[in-house]
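Q: How would the structure tokens look for this protein?
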Amino acid sequence: MINRASSFLWNLRQFSTAVPTSRTMRLSPLGFSRLKVVFSNNSNLRSFLLSDFGNRVQSSIRYLFQDALILKSRDDFQTKGISTETVLTVTRVLCPRRLPFDSKHSLASDDGLKINFYQEASNEDVLTKETKPTPVNYRKLSQECSSLSDVLDIFSEAPTFPSSNYLSSMWTIAKRMSEDQKRIEKQLMFNHPAFSQLCEQMMREAKIMRYDHVLFSLLAIVKLGIPQNTLLVQTLLRVVQERINECDEKCLSVLSTILEAMEPCKNVDVLRAGVRILANQQVWKIERVFTLQVVMKCVGKDAPIALKRKLEMKALRELDRFSDLNSQHMFEALAAMNHRSITLLNECSKMVIGNIHGCPFKVLISILQSCRDLQYRNLDLFKGIADYVAVTIDIWKLKQVLFLLILFEKLGFRHTDVMDLFIRKVMDDPASLTMKNIISVLHVYSSLNHFHKCHTQEFQEAMASSLTGYLHHISSENLLNAVCSFCLMNHFPLGLINQLLQKDIINELLTSGDIERNAHKLRILAACLKLDVSCHKAIDLVLPPLPSTPLYPNAKVADALSSLLGEGYFLKNVHLPHNYHIDFEVRMDINRSQVLPFSSVDVITAAADIQRVAVLCVPRSTYCLDLTRPRGYLAMKMRHLKIMGFHVILVHNWKIERLEVKDIVTFLKTELYSAKAFPTADANPQSTC
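A: Here is the predicted structure in token form.
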């Protein structure tokens, strides 16, 4: 094997000497490079590589790594004033596993310059002579050293094989540090004279050290923050590619963790494809649930659906072996590959609920974020998490509870106990909230339409007072968001509203940012000031026209009204002032005994003895998750329709879909004619189906 490697290196060295160079310098292993090789004679290289390749045919997986050696597109190294050269695209991996680092190469760096470098020849015999035969124990090293520089000092005194032990111990030490200390130590590490030497030795040893040591070294390098496009990282990625057939379950777990932590690039994408193939081949042989979950995260959202289902089936078969930690992390694993397995999520939810006490904050956040990404709604799971937070709220920071409430709002979940307790904590210390926190709090409470039984007014005034102190620092969009949230809650702080209605702020909102969204919120403000706040002066805003979208009323409800009332006794798609729309309108007499045809009431629409009825067909998304309380915008619309003289009947689309037309007729008849629905002409209760 040594003779073959030496012969290959000698041949490549002979070929490299024929390449004309303009500059010669030693390239640091931390030099930024994508390892794109620029040759002056493409035909010579091709013939040489093909002749040297011989019978060294690797297994099928290695042929997947096409263009693996070309890491940077042609455009990446074009710079102003520098001519470009034709770059050879290698369509197959044509070099053996042991990479030659003792030959001359011409590399294209990130700044576009072609850099020629030369490294001294070194083979395994030289390496053995230069290093100590007794390797250092990285666990002992990480216990004896207190800083990254200590490890580098020991390495500089007597470097030993393998160098992976030094890198692993450095990452172990870094994990024990605070963020500030870690940042300082990393800077000292980069400036240490032995660090470059350690990187060079790691590159040389990668050819011959054990495969799992290469992977652990690469993991430590990535976690230590060494830039991904350096020669060191890209070289190790190439070595990992060429030796991927040596990957067992342990190596597959480490490799998946590495790729999950790295940004997409040519070599990373190639390795991810390799992991998908290995996972497809070895999924039934995986013994550890942790390895299975790491692989699920690594394969990503673009993995074939057949592979996702195979991983799902493997996880279902291992359910009996799931630990509490496994069940908690399965949400994140499924979200990472965008696979919504209801059965698996339901089973893991039961385990999370049963072991919720002591669950870390980060895990709770991860579970809720994954449920949001997967559009998974489990009322029992959310209630279990919220009940746990309500019981232990004294140990949580105010901003942690707010973060949970924000996620609950995105899921449409309203937990009254947690929201009431949060209001009390805010009122005890309103100064602890920043401007962004206040805006988030207002959005959560207005969207979920939540009001405290006793302290609603005090809470709203406290939020308005705190936000008023930021008037000189708040952006126009944030001010609009806050005022719109107050409008949904039927509270109108005039100081904030007057600031928002200044011409320059309105003009900024209608000419920059999300103009359509800003215009929608300004329409809400205008409607509230007209209908809810009679004492405020009317505003005349010139807003962009609403897009004309076709409206299709619920066909089943239309058929039911036609069967119950007959044609001419109801209207479809009724447009009202203030940009409101209702699906159906019915008009009745004051005695609730009959429905009036529209031809006879057109002239007396505003008469006191006419009751107007608005039938709204609403989707599930307009309600909170428990389907017992309308969300903020629907609640405001119902409030405004009542002010305009309507009685509102809510028809739930998700219930209507399961009913026959005759059942819908029975429901509408009960709501329109029953004495309970209309006790008096001005009571205007809301009825729902």
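The longest strand covers residues 580-589.

The chain has a mean pLDDT of 80.

Upvote if useful.
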